[in-house]
Amino acid sequence: MSKLAEYLNRHTIGNVFDRPSICQKYATDRSILEIMPRLVAVPESTDDIRKLLRFSDQLANRDFSLPVTVRGTGLDKTGASIGEGMIISMEKFSHIEEIDLRGRLVRVQPGMTLGALNEALRLQGVWLPVDYNPEATIGGLIANCPSDDAASRYGGIYQYIERAEVVLANGELVQMMPLSLHAAETKAGEDTPEGQLYRKISKILDKYDDTILDRSMRPFDAAGYANIVKVRERHSVNLLPLMFASQGTLGVISDVILRVEPLPPESRRLLVSFHDLKSAQRFLNFVCDLEPATVKICDLRIIDNAADHGKKPELFVRKIGRGMLVLIDFGYGRFRLGSRLKRCLEVLPPGTFYTEETPENADAFQCIDNALMTYLNEDGRGERSPILDDVFVPTMHFSDFLDGLKGLEDTLGLELPVFGSFATSNYYVRPDLDCRSLEDRKRMMEFIRLYTELVESCHGSLTGNGPEGRVKALMTSKALGVGEQQLYASIKEAFDPHNILNPKVKLGADLKDTLHHLRTTERGGIITV
């Protein structure tokens, strides 16, 4: 490895490291896995990325494997931002390159974080309407395409990427954007790597037409390369959809042009506490018909837990008990906001505890997020790391999901309070398990099995709000039919014939390999959603 690092350092502007202490820092993401890489590369330019990928591709031609994993801030929860070969860290690709306020377009590097981007854009009166972890990079949002809390109103990151520059596995550079059928046909006729890619994808679209049609019937499922259904639409062809939820297995994004929106008007939030879950669901169904910006829910046990650790929210003046907390943000102007708040209060059951946000109590509303942070980082038996986050459960089966969680708590001997977004049907359950304990690692695998069965019994999907990575693929790959597996394998081969980009993620998940890489040490730092 030292010879490889030395060679790459001679041919790139950025740095390539093989020192164990550096590699160890990149051995974990937010998942339950740990994989020590051989090399860590920190490129300075797109040309550096091309050279790194070309080198790995040439090694593959000589039957030497140096797989490549692209990494932003390491927030992936499915093990997709760690790998045993070379990590390409995009931390130097973190700049805004151009802002076109007239066209509401921004060109950014993929290592730019959502928080830093919106902080800069806010000064111009615009923003990227994605309500997600501010530390997530733009490239990471594309690679994972998560369902953020505001996706029901704004559509998520997929709706705002206009164009991307992508480095393929062989080091070739392509521009991905919508093309007319004629332009795509012309592109496919070119004697270039890009032309060859268009020809391969065109053949795949024709060969697997029926499989792709069947796949389009499952919109709440990001497993495999689900966005193949969006590549050829109406009178255009666009390869860019394939990059969404691909988790770095098809190419490395090096430049992005995205669309932004004017800042929304100031809004007020409504906080409602329910002890009767049936009343809560009736109210939630009513609220969602009013098209709010976000509807967050939280098991009241999480609030109680925070209170036990000194973080009792000031908004509550009585003992909380069991039930559900609902936090609604309509995101409208004053007139529309007032009418919707009034309609919400009219349908609340008598005696229901609620609080409207005011300038005086606005800071207290932050206590809800702080309570969740306390719960995730309490000094319990183990840690509340993501195991199977971002599951989709249809609204009509939410009550069944809650009932099933009660049974699962009894079976596993764990408390499993739920939190998440009712508007996007995106839910989280974080069991308290000690990854250092062999017994708890066994319980972790049992939780994965039983929780998957529960979600599926409620007509939900593990990958409804995010892709599978290494962890979820243990369960989702079993459900793929032969035709669908062949479709995805063909897409992977078209982009990455030597399988150097994030192998064992998505299509290559292996139970034995995953068990081997289960973390046996606690992950440092603060655990977040």
Tell me the strand order in the biggest sheet: 18-15-17-16-20-21-19
Major sheet attributes:
7 strands, antiparallel
Helix content: 25-40%
Compute the number of strand runs: 21
Q: Overall mean pLDDT score?
A: 93
Share of β-strand residues: 15-25%
**Uncertain parts:** none
- Count the DSSP helices: 18
C-alpha-based Rg, rounded: 23 Å
N- to C-terminal distance: 36 Å
Overall outline: globular
Structural class: alpha+beta
Description:
By secondary structure, the chain is an alpha+beta fold. It is about 35% helix and about 15% strand. A 7-stranded antiparallel beta sheet has the order 18-15-17-16-20-21-19. The two termini are about 35 Å apart.
Write the layout of secondary structure elements.
Blueprint: H1 2-11, E1 15-17, H2 20-25, E2 39-42, H3 46-61, E3 68-71, E4 86-89, E5 96-100, E6 105-108, H4 114-122, E7 126-127, H5 138-144, H6 151-154, E8 161-167, E9 173-176, E10 179-180, H7 181-188, H8 193-207, H9 209-215, E11 232-233, E12 236-237, E13 252-259, E14 261-262, E15 269-274, H10 277-288, E16 294-299, H11 300-308, E17 324-329, H12 334-347, E18 353-356, H13 362-376, E19 391-392, H14 398-412, E20 418-421, E21 426-429, H15 438-457, H16 473-476, H17 482-495, H18 511-516
Parallel strand pairs: 2-4, 3-4
Antiparallel strand pairs: 1-2, 5-6, 6-13, 7-14, 8-9, 8-13, 10-12, 11-12, 15-17, 15-18, 16-17, 16-20, 19-21, 20-21
Helix pairs in contact: 7-8, 8-17, 11-13, 14-15
